Amino acid sequence: MSSIVIIHGSPTPGSRLNGLIEFVESNLQEKGIEITHVQVAELPAEALLRANFKDESIIAAVGKVEAATGVVIASPVYKASFTGVLKAFIDLLPQKGLQGKAALPLFIGGTISHLLSLDYALKPVLSVLGSRNILGGVFAIDSWVTRLEGGGFELADELRDRLTNAADELAEEIEWLDKRSQAKAETK
Fold it and tell me: What is the CATH number of the domain that holds 104?
């Protein structure tokens, strides 16, 4: 079965980023894709800051990434880049920790001027980690995501369309990667 790990890079539990993540997750689950999560801000701060590769929580989180066919890497944009807490976790992944995986970046920021942070801040890091299936990603502006009184989020129509397309593309990529992996296993 295809699986994706969603890496939440926000240090804020109530972040509007959750609206994007929930929408994409629901879309992928409808396609029968298994989803796991890594809430980076919930990992032990001491282990992240000191790069403690032997911490059980870090081992478990890295294991989720290793087991997945695809990753969704989600972060708010601070100072034209992804969060420091996300960077601390990414630094704990093995050198080729994303090799053979499809990656979908999801970013949210206060202004469209941070749009290129996907291309110039995150994608080079994903490439260094071995991902060759880095999708275009989705950048959203905070004002496109509204918190609802009873909980949850409402997304602007254009954002919903872009997230749907991105989730569809990710599902197609991981299906292709799974088929390729099965074919390789059968020829051995």
Answer: 3.40.50.360
DSSP 8-state class, residue 118: I
Number of helices (H) and strands (E), helices first, in the chain? 7, 8
Q: 121 to each of 83, 85, 133, 139, how far by Cα in Å?
A: 10, 14, 17, 13
Q: How far apart are the first and last CA of the chain?
A: 20
- Structurally, how many domains does the chain consist of? 1
On the CB side of 184, CA atoms within 13 Å amount to: 7
- How far is the C-alpha of 90 from the C-alpha of 84, rounded, in Å? 10
Domain span at residue 138 reads 3-187
Tokens representing residue 4 in the block: 């994706």
Instruction: Give the global pTM.
Output: 0.94
For the segment 109-160, what is each residue's pLDDT rounded down to a tens digit? 998 888 888 899 999 999 999 998 999 999 999 999 999 999 899 999 999 9
